[in-house]
Amino acid sequence: MAGVVVVALLIGAFWLGARIRGREPGPPRPEDQPRLPDEGPVREVLENREPDEVPHSDHRLTPHEIPGHGNAPTRTSPSQDRPRWRDGGSGSFGSGGPGTG
Known about the structure:
The structure is a single chain. It contains 1 helix and 2 strands, in the order αββ. A two-stranded antiparallel sheet has the order 1-2. By secondary structure, the protein is mainly α.
């Protein structure tokens, strides 16, 4: 008896899913797809950034008194050399070598 109930529930679920899917819009047509701009693809800007200095003041600054309204503004770094890790280092925590413990 329980098996008949499970089968009935599964058939009902498939029937309901088919009805819902039948009401959904079809896939977009090729002319509805986004197209490249006339200038070509947009390129990623690859540059090193560094934070702007917080203005010095005699009193405590609130976020709305900081340039950028509390967001940390950045500027293009004068040095565009990418920082490199030391040889043999992992660039993360530790030396990258075998553990000591």
